[in-house]
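Continued from yesterday's entry.
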Amino acid sequence: MKIIFKSLLASALVVLCSGVLAQEAAIRKSLAERLPQLKSIDEISKTPIPGLFELRVNGADIYYTDAQGNYLIEGNIIDLRAKRNLTEERVTKLTAVKFEELPFKDAFTIVRGNGKRRLAVFEDPNCGYCKRFERDLQKVDNVTIYMFLYPILGADSSDKSKAIWCAKDQGKAWQDYMVRDLQVPAAAAGCDTTALARNVELGRTHKITGTPTLLFIDGSRVPGAVDAKQVEKLLSDAKG
């Protein structure tokens, strides 16, 4: 009896998988014909809404379509019963950054006190909110800050980031400019600044769209210029 049941279950799973693959193929074919400008679809999956499918494009861009690929929907799915933004949760999961996998070679460090607590920050030197954040961050002690220069606000941001990255003491140059309003000498010729381009690409991959953006060791992300008291709480929460 058990053998018969297992055989029936296996057959049912094969049929189910075949149906899912056929459905996915039909959606891909329909969208390719009707919307050729839509870039390669990474994944198609069912949503909690009957007949509605999720399209994952470019790693973490989320759209929705019907079973026939007649409609393309851009927006958020809100679970009203659970009061959850399912689209936002999905994007957050897809763009999550594992702290220990960050390319620390492309950042410089600022260590205060014993440096036991750790924090990564993406900032643009032309960001006014970043300057406010940096001045308040001076109050946070016993922390190691991994500073990822993230020049996304224009060509001048790139020039300033290169000057700071190429400085003999990067941490001092950064704080001289952001906290003490001192100018930083231009980057010397021949200085390797490819780390900055890698930072921009990393940020785009993980949907870091504004500065400052803070990343904590538990994988949590906080956008915006939070004050020192909030940073202390976030560091404590991340440590568990």
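--- second protein ---
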Amino acid sequence: MKDYRPPFTITNEILAYVSSISEKVGRITAIVNMEAKPHLRKNNRIKSIHSSLRIEANSLSLGQVRDVINGKAVLGAQEEIQEVKNAYAAYEKLSEIDPYSIRDLKRFHGIMTKYIVEESGNFRRGEEGVFNGEQCIFMAPPARFVPQLMDDLFHWMEAAKAVVHPLILSCVFHYEFVFIHPFSDGNGRMARLWHTAILSNWKSVFEYIPIESQIEKFQEDYYNAIAKCHMDGESTAFIAFMLSRIDKILDDISVQISEDSEQLSEYVKRLLDVMEYDTPYTAVALLEKLRLKSKETFRKNYLHPAIKLNLIRMTIPDKPNSKNQRYIKL
């Protein structure tokens, strides 16, 4: 049915959120170039991956997720480590996604579930339910209907993208995708990735905004909104919920950018400028690069502030004075 239209109502509350979010995005874009803040981009991407996987019961901590992404050995379940590697590979290719292509959807599901899902990159052949922990929220449509339901959804998106605001369209897609539950596993991760892909296709700044962290913080409300939409037969409640969370995360990002700009002294900026990402340096090597002689000045004005701001990490944090200590730019 190429004329299929997912049921939803655009309320005054939704319109108010669209206006607020659009204004905040414009303000953030005007005051900061995220391309010039690689540490913020990377930190927010790690937050996105950690939160999205944590929703699906991945037990790795934020620090462990960071270490996996940085190529460090991590003690943990191999499947959970693979989930992090897969998610990072998918998010790193976010700008390549055509969010209106089913072919791309399947390709990125293959990336997101590589080595851990038997039907990776293909629609499910069996019956599935949506669970919040041990509780089954609802049973998904029979597998035989999935291809047609997904075709209908993508045909609607292609037609609607010219008339439905991306903020609303992305929420409708997210809910409808969760309802159809097209894959045997990885549906939640893909719904959140695709939501971000639609928004970043509209405004590139969304590529580095961790919407997933808001969903994790309000996970119970997230599932309640989905359940209410099942009862209502339309996605209005989910649209309002997601827009409220996006509106909030933009406030957090504004504060983050403000603090980053205020606290980043000229000393710290100089230190970051002489360091390459993910490269370990000794204190002596950094002193040489900065052309400094005083170790005390280096520690007080350069190194300690950068570590405090989580811009640099120690390779041996539990032994800060170790002779084998190295410093890595994040």
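Strands lie at 129-132, 135-139, 312-314, 327-329. Residues 12-261 form a domain with the Fic-like fold fold (CATH 1.10.3290.10). Will compare against the first tomorrow.
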